[in-house]
Design a protein that fits this description.
single chain, about 160 residues, alpha+beta, Arc Repressor Mutant, subunit A, two-stranded antiparallel ribbon, two-stranded antiparallel sheet, 5 helices, 4 strands
Length: about 160
Amino acid sequence: MQRTQFGDMACSIARTLDVIGEPWSPLILRDIYAGINRFEQIQQDLGISRKVLTERLKWLVESGVLERHAYSERPPRHEYRLTSKGTELCDLLLVMVRWGDRWLAGEAGPPVLYRHHACGQISHVELHCSVCDQPMHATDIDVEPGPGLDAPPVPSVG
């Protein structure tokens, strides 16, 4: 049975899932965003197998979301850093955090708080229209065909 090639679909959601749709990938990105960026640290924090972590890190580097940097030559050791593409992908994770905090945190409340650099306050992500700056939610928009709908698929990475 062959895996569906989500990256070949004319759908931005499917193409994004091709990069981070596997459950470990967003958690790996979360760790690296939070400063846990060495293989052993990530493995210990997540309790993930070495094989799966190696595969996921390789894929995220190939996808241009992470960069691998040597921090020791003997023995050879690497740490992982977010690229600009990866940092922007963390914005998506913040939207996921907002939803999880609202619907799944329970009485204990959110497990992590986020302090905004600009105002210094504990806050959360809100979606706004890039044109009028008004709040933007799924019930506030219509979905229309875009120019890339019938375009040939973007070549897959790897």
